[in-house]
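Task: sequence design from structure.
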């Protein structure tokens, strides 16, 4: 998508993920009657479910009966990437146009009744409290289960140093998550030195933009929705404004 605007994009992996509590996750997935639905706010949580289903006996149980039972309940998702992964395991996603946790919480609250069965929420250890808090305030029960932990990618420092030594200072740097900001901030600032004011910093959405601002990074653009198209258009507009 960035290439369509004439940009050359380099992707540097920032995060590594370790999956945890997968037996507990499948145990809960095996009890669809105990829950009012599923909430998935990241592709990583879906990856955890898919890892569970790689086991032949679990996959068979899912295909024979569990999938159909979960399909009688809503599967709430935060965006298109998560929605497509939900479809891959045979469920029908709802709320994919939300784009962030705040809007997804609003969507869920408009459809769920207080004191109904709990929604199952597989999530990461670094999850924000926006969605759980919003649902709790409306009396909608949510059962969270941490299924992955986020750490810094082992090659991050080396990848960044290699990029800067070969390519020089980039026109724009894009962050895709608050965790990305956290792990990248110091090495990038060290490599940029006094050149940071020449760079357009972009965010995939409002949550990441907030994390950037809190870290003292000026946000030149935030994608209107978390899609490649909106991100590319936002970066192009930000760079054009400075004739980069």
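Answer:
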């Amino acid at each position: 998508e960035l290439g369509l605007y004439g940009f050359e994009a380099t992707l540097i992996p920032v995060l590594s993920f370790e999956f945890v509590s997968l037996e507990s996750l499948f145990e809960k997935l095996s009890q669809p009657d105990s829950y009012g639905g599923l909430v998935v706010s990241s592709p990583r949580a879906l990856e955890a479910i898919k890892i569970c289903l790689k086991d032949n006996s679990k996959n068979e149980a899912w295909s024979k009966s569990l999938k159909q039972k979960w399909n009688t309940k809503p599967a709430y998702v935060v965006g298109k990437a998560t929605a497509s992964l939900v479809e891959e395991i045979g469920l029908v996603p709802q709320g994919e146009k939300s784009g962030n946790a705040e809007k997804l919480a609003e969507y869920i609250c408009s459809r769920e009744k207080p004191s109904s069965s709990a929604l199952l929420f597989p999530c990461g250890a670094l999850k924000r409290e926006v969605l759980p808090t919003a649902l709790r305030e409306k009396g909608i029960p949510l059962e969270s289960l941490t299924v992955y932990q986020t750490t810094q990618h082992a090659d991050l420092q080396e990848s960044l140093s290699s990029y800067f030594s070969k390519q020089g200072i980039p026109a724009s740097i894009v962050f895709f998550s608050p965790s990305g900001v956290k792990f990248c901030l110091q090495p990038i600032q060290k490599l940029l030195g006094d050149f940071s004011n020449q760079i357009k910093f972009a965010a995939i959405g409002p949550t990441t933009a907030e994390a950037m601002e809190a870290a003292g990074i000026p946000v030149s653009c935030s994608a209107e929705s978390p899609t490649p198209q909106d991100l590319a258009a936002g970066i192009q507009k930000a760079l054009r404004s400075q004739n980069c």
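The chain has two domains: 17-151, 154-241.
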